[in-house]
Amino acid sequence: MEIIIGLFIIAIGAFCQSSCYVPINKIKSWSWESYWIVQGVFAWLLLPLLGALLAIPEGHGLFELFSRNPEATGLTILFGVLWGIGGLTFGLSMRYLGVALGQSIALGTCAGLGTILGPVVLNMLYPGQGMLATLTASVIIGVIVTLLGIAIIGLAGSMKASSLSEEEKKASVKDFNFPKGIAVALLCGLMSACFAIGLAVGGEIRYEGVNPMYETLPATFLVTLGGFVTNAVYCFAQNSKNHTWGDYAKKSVWLNNLVFCIIAGALWYSQFFGLALGKGFLTESPVLLTFAWCILMALNVVFSNVWGIILKEWKGCSRQTITVLLIGIIVLIISTFLPQLL
pTM for this one? Predict the structure, then answer.
């Protein structure tokens, strides 16, 4: 029962993340760089900080915890900076491919690499601790099935690109560009996997005896902090380049935009808050603990495609294309449970 609860919590977080771009569409009169960094203040700074505080026992402090583990803290932030590059290209992947296909390719690559590279990097940093032993046959098979599901969805996207006219493509995704979008999405997936590596490296940044549901939240904050730095540098540079600093002074839209930025940021952070809570219920299954990252990303892809259908990004596609898409979604759903069944 606890495993089912844990998976359900992770699924809720995935659904929230996949929904975070809906409130962003309600933002008015701000450039991309302006609303991206404002929602990031909540998604990558304030909410992760509040989450991290849940893992701090009475009489202790968050920065006390970080100072006790300076090497791990620094490395976790570094991987967060690298993940921030993935976050920047994430938006571009959806710009060129749409919410459904963009998230599918980017998160699918992130799912596989994040699951595999976490133990691999830990083994490189701390050899002799047997970290590679967590990559069991069940986990590897689960990753392969997840990537198979992503590949099937990618095939559906290729079928969409070849079957629709340029006018139909632009109607659903304004800047649709399949070759450029695939390249950006793959780069995004590679860099986004650094989030999982950061969580793995920061695994020991916790107080003893803390509730397992909260123990990874300090590391999550360090990763998002690094990502915030990357995004802030880029967004403020874009504000200067595009002369959009005036966005922040538009009083008529500030309340509207702030509300939707908060909602978007909260929905985005929910995926990692849900991951932490969900893993707290998976402690009896080492396989699912290792595979939890892949489960989260796979469910993100499932729900993003649901939103893609709702937003009519697949409108005009043939029945065959939609069938391939649905098969890919079903394979991803199966992949979330497969390792536990093997």
Answer: 0.83
